Give the backbone structure.
Amino acid sequence: MPEDLAAAEEVSSTTIPPSSKGPTSDSARNAFTELLSSPKKTPKHDKSTPDSHAPPALTTFSGRAGLGAYTAAPESFPASRVISHNDDFVVINDLYPKSSIHLLLLPRRRDKQLLHPLEALQDPEFLSSIQQEVRKVRLMVARELQRRFAKFSVKERGRENAMEKALNGTEEIDESTLPSGRDWDKDVISGIHTHPSMSHLHIHILSRDRHSECMRHRKHYNSFATEFLVDVEEFPLAPQEVKRRLKAGFLHDDLVCWRCGRNFGNKFAKLKKHLEKEFEEWKTE
């Protein structure tokens, strides 16, 4: 029986806002959207091709189809929700983030967006475009992690101190010998779920901390801590691997801390408390 990740409170309808309430009315843009938002282009809709992204007459996308509103009319949403979009992709903040930063990449190809991800990503050309875009969004997340948490990081402070000494002339430092600083990309994970909670194809790109109020139960955690999450760089998958991923009960695996490896069995409350401590220590790396 397929593993169901969806919770009632996280599967809700999405209505495309009236155009008069689009991004220009969003006066409360936070620092993250200011950093990540790029000039938004109105998609060019070619009605003569089957891949046209022209939005349907539908304005409310119900339940599991809720993500369809963002691919149909991304320009209608505020920048706090839709970070960027072009003719091929939309990047949004996950409404129920499972980490301190959690984005969704939504492909807009109408011949692909309702396919199961394990099927859609077997197309070599489409897969290549997804992989390239995921790398771009991972960079967005890494830069935002650096902006938020660099002040806590020992590695970042070491590099900043060395650069400050060089700039002040107190020490002569060869740039090639400067401390490298923290590799924030290593703190980003990405992939698709083998049993997605939403109908439209979407790729998760998130920080690895799993620090969020929306991380509420075992299935939430294991969906990002086990092979239930498949990195797009693993594709294309062999047929037998597809079958294995679909049948395995990863969501019911023991709860294992992503950072220290401690096994909490099925004790989610204890893991959740432990993750608070790990988050504070992780920031200082």
In short: The CA atoms of residues 36 and 140 lie 7 Å apart.
